[in-house]
Amino acid sequence: MHRTLPPELFSGFLAVSADAVIAVDEDQRIIFFNQGAEQIFGWTADEVGGKYLAMLLPERYRPQHRGHVEGFGAAHGKARLMGERQQISGLRKSGEEFPAEASIQRMQVDGHNVYAAVLRDVSARQKAEDALRQAIQARDDMLGIVSHDLRNPANAVKMLAASILADAASGRVPEDIVERVRVMQQAAAQMDTLIQDLLDVTRIEAGRLRVSLRQVDPRLLVVGALEAMRPLAELSGVTLREHYDPDLPEVGADPERITQVLSNVVGNALKFTPDGGRVTIRVQRGGRGVIISVADTGEGIPPEQLPRIFDRFFQVASEGPNGPRHGAGLGLPIARGIVEAHGGSIRVESEPGSGSLVTIELPA
Predict the structure, then answer these.
(1) DSSP strand pairing (30-33 vs 20-24)
(2) Same structural domain for residues 229 and 323?
(3) Is residue 313 located within the same domain as residue 334?
(4) Taking all residues of the chain, what is their mean pLDDT, rounded to a whole number?
(5) What CATH number is attached to the domain comprising 143?
(6) pLDDT of residue 41
(7) Boundary-marking domain end, from 73, 97, 121
(8) Which pLDDT tens digit goes with each residue over 207-252?
(9) In the chain, how many domains are there?
(10) Tell me: the pLDDT tens digits for 26-70?
């Protein structure tokens, strides 16, 4: 049975609210000032009673404040929803300004307008947000500096290694030295890839990743990416298979970025597929465009780890034939960022012992 609560119960609720609840009459004089308002503003209800609401605002906002409240009453009818809160600035008794969120409601009492405002002090939240923004900016600046400073020596190692290998072609360098130089060259290339991954994940998080789209045949994207992965597949003893639907539509894609995605996804599949296994890439027509799927016959991903595979720096716990597999844990987060920048989607399904399936959808 519905029961009407007495008015004094509502006033009791308002009085003890942690938010500031303030009511003013048509002249915008304060007629109600709860405990939350006393704590936030530093004034007591007796001190502010009968005074103009503008005293709770910084000086620069007072001239236009009256018009704002009256305009709200004329334009918005009875109430503005809490979800439409606007951030404002309040003024404490001490003279300190603070950021706040407020909502306002107009009521009719004995034929007169009464305006009630609910205000929340968001100083702590804003300080935390400012500190977080500063920390992210400091991290991004540091990553930029470190990446730049690391890339120069990495490039120097790659160029010197290439020079030595060029001399080796003429037989002027002993074979054992040539092998060591090749390892140096591969290590420098890995370092360069890691630097690029760090920069990419930073751009993705900041919403600054840019893609240059053009109409591309999806077959060419996949063929180009797989060409670079075949030596790794042969070295791992894994068979690469490809299947293409006829009459595939072109997709709007940045070829370099999509190649990066496919290299990450296929590289993961090869890494987690044992000798004698296979990785199958299918390119099919989908509802929105083209679906590229990468299926492997590897060990699969444990169910408890599957929800975290797109987390930055997360690595699936796994043992390979030569011990634990290591990586930076950036490949899939970067792949998702790139695919989503194309307006597409990526998802992973897996069963332990049955392999994994990565599905990428790109719009036509």
Answers:
(1) antiparallel
(2) yes
(3) yes
(4) 82
(5) 1.10.287
(6) 95
(7) 121
(8) 777 888 999 999 999 998 888 888 889 988 999 999 999 989 999 9
(9) 3
(10) 889 999 999 999 999 999 999 999 999 999 999 888 887 766 666
- Hey, is 11 helix, strand or coil? helix
Nearest to 222 by CA among 275, 270, 265: 265
Q: 110 and 21, same structural domain?
A: yes
Average pLDDT over residues 153-175: 79
Whether residue 222 sits in one domain with residue 152 = no
Specify whether 304 is located in the same domain as 223.
yes
Surface-to-core class of residue 86, CB atoms within 10 Å of its CB (0-12 exposed, 13-18 middle, 19+ buried): exposed
Q: Do 56 and 86 reside in the same domain of the chain?
A: yes
Question: What pLDDT, on a 0 to 100 scale, did the predictor assign at position 203?
Answer: 75
Is the pLDDT higher at 105 or at 71? 105
Indicate whether 321 and 234 sit together in one domain.
yes
Tell me how far apart the alpha carbons of residues 107 and 105 are, in angstroms, rounded to a whole number: 7
Mean pLDDT of 319-346: 74
For residue 202, what is the DSSP state?
Answer: H
Please check whether residue 2 lies inside any domain of the structure.
no
Q: Which two tokens stand for residue 212?
A: 């240059």
Query: Are 99 and 123 within 8 A, CB to CB?
Result: yes
Domain range for 29 is 7-121
Q: Is the pLDDT of residue 83 over 50?
A: no
- Residue 230 region by backbone torsions, left for phi larger than 0, else alpha for psi between -120 and 50, else beta: alpha
Same domain, 110 and 144: no
Average pLDDT over residues 258-266: 90
From 272, 281, 271, 276, select the one nearest 239 (Cα to Cα): 276
Neighbours of 104 (CB within 10 A): 21
Structure tokens of 126?
Answer: 């804003």
CATH number, domain at 111? 3.30.450.20
- How is residue 10 written in tokens? 């509502």
Distances (CA, A) of 115 to 18, 71, 92: 19, 12, 21
Q: Which residues lie across from 290 on neighbouring strands?
A: 285, 362
User: DSSP secondary-structure letter at 61?
Assistant: G
Please name which of 342, 336, 339 lies closest in space to residue 311, comparing C-alpha atoms: 336
Q: Is 1 part of any domain? A: no
pLDDT in tens, 282-306: 999 988 889 999 999 998 888 888 8
- CA–CA separation, 273 vs 301, rounded Å? 12
